[in-house]
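Reading a protein record of the kind used here takes only a little practice. The integers have meaning only within a learned vocabulary of local backbone shapes. With that in mind, consider the following protein and its fold in token form:
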Amino acid sequence: MAASSIFMAAPITVFNRNPTFSVIRCMAQAPQSGDAEGSKPATTPMTTPPPPPPAPKVSMKFSDVLAFSGPAPERINGRLAMIGFVSAMAVEVSSGQDVLTQIGNGGVGLFVGTSVLLSLASLVPLFKGVSVQSKSNGLMTSDAEMWNGRFAMLGLVALALTEYVKGSALV
């Protein structure tokens, strides 16, 4: 019976159904001036990094596309040099004609026709606002095309100089 009297004498705790909280605060905000805990040092607010800047729009103006540092001139010249180098070497291997002889035997008309066709095919996407980098992926990147075009330009010049010094076709 002594054990039961201990349990009877113990106070019963009543839980309040609507507790009130003195302060509820978000960690990202500094305390306001009227808070009771305003004397504590404020924590620095957590900031999110700013969104990345929007991608620059591709200018579709004729003067911007064909500007010296624009997307078209070196790319078009490189594409023409790649086709010119491969076709010059193919004709030289098949017929034994050097580059200057190829140009003299009707090569000017083919060169002009190829230049016009490739220039238009290269300019149409640029005037529609498609950037060169947007179509780059894997091995076929815009940088690889630029380097291949530069090497083809050097190859054409080296081929013409070598044939001029040698006095005949390279192959």
